[in-house]
Write a sequence for this structure.
């Protein structure tokens, strides 16, 4: 077990914000941590209202909202816009911004510059970066600058090509042991938490026992300290193939499409807008208007409504 000091943080938490130290208490008391991704203010607001502890502004946004077929094209500027929006919507949950591919691998200096941008320009509470090994120096550098870091090992989508595709990791004894030492090294480097993605349940369970910091699983079974799911997967909003570890709590894509089809049919059949969705004007103004420009096909109806406000 590590005895290193806790992650320093970059300042006092905003009022009402979950203190990062509470995650350790949650691990200690076996109180599961709930995390979800979000990419805009409404989803941030809904996640906050639903009681999540942490929001990850994941680079999965490249696929879920920007239409790419991998997470690799996500840029820092795009992630900053999304993180800022989530920050406007969510108050209590810790907001973790995902550092996109190319934003931290090149040098410690670039990694710190970009991590600091997420905190200063977008209001993130922490950043997440994928990998261990050569990335441990990046973790140390960012933590040293005062920005809390969440690690991410197992299936790391930014390096999916090198890993042989989107598939579970650590399924041999040797690979599982590598994951254990990577997790311990990330804790030692100063991470406040580690995501374990697509890792066999017993491996994730052992890592969780060995680490003092919380593990957050996605496809890592139930013996971890918390869970994270992608917003679009959980809500059934994404039409691509859902990984085995996804549980869909709603099928909103179908509901949204039905609603939009209904709207299109209403427009085409003149059923929308109804009177309740329209504005009128005071009668004397209408009369003056008609005197000036003549009567159009809607003028009689508006006069009958006698509506003048914008409500
Ligand atoms: O980008 C993302 O959404 C993630 C989660 C899958 C952990 O990294």
């Amino acid at each position: 077990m590590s005895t290193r000091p806790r992650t320093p943080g970059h300042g006092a938490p905003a009022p009402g914000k979950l203190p990062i130290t509470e995650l350790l208490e949650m691990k200690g008391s076996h109180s599961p941590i709930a995390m979800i991704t979000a990419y805009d203010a409404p989803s941030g607001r809904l996640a906050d209202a639903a009681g999540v502890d942490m929001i990850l502004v994941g680079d999965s946004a490249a696929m879920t909202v920007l239409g790419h077929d991998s997470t690799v094209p996500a840029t820092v500027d795009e992630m900053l816009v999304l993180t800022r929006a989530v920050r406007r919507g969510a108050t209590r949950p810790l907001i973790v911004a995902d550092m996109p591919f190319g934003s931290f691998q090149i040098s410690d200096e670039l990694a710190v510059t970009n991590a600091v941008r997420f905190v200063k320009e977008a209001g993130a509470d922490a950043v997440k970066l994928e990998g261990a090994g050569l990335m441990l120096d990046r973790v140390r550098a960012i933590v040293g600058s005062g920005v809390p870091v969440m690690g991410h090992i197992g299936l790391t989508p930014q390096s999916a090509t090198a890993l042989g595709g989107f598939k579970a990791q650590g399924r041999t004894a040797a690979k599982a042991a590598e994951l254990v030492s990577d997790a311990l090294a990330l804790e030692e480097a100063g991470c406040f938490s580690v995501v374990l993605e697509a890792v066999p349940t017993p491996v994730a369970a052992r890592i969780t026992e060995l680490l003092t910091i919380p593990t957050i699983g996605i496809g890592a079974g139930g013996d971890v300290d918390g869970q994270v799911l992608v917003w679009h997967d959980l809500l059934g909003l994404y039409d691509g193939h859902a990984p085995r570890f996804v549980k869909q709590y709603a099928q909103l894509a179908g509901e949204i499409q039905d609603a939009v089809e209904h709207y299109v049919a209403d427009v085409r059949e003149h059923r929308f807008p109804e009177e309740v969705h329209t504005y009128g004007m005071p009668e004397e103004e209408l009369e003056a208007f008609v005197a000036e420009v003549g009567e159009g096909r809607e003028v009689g109806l508006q006069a009958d409504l006698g509506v003048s406000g914008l409500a």
About this structure: The two ends are 61 Å apart (CA to CA). The beta strands are 33-37, 54-57, 94-98, 126-128, 149-154, 193-197, 215-218, 226-229.
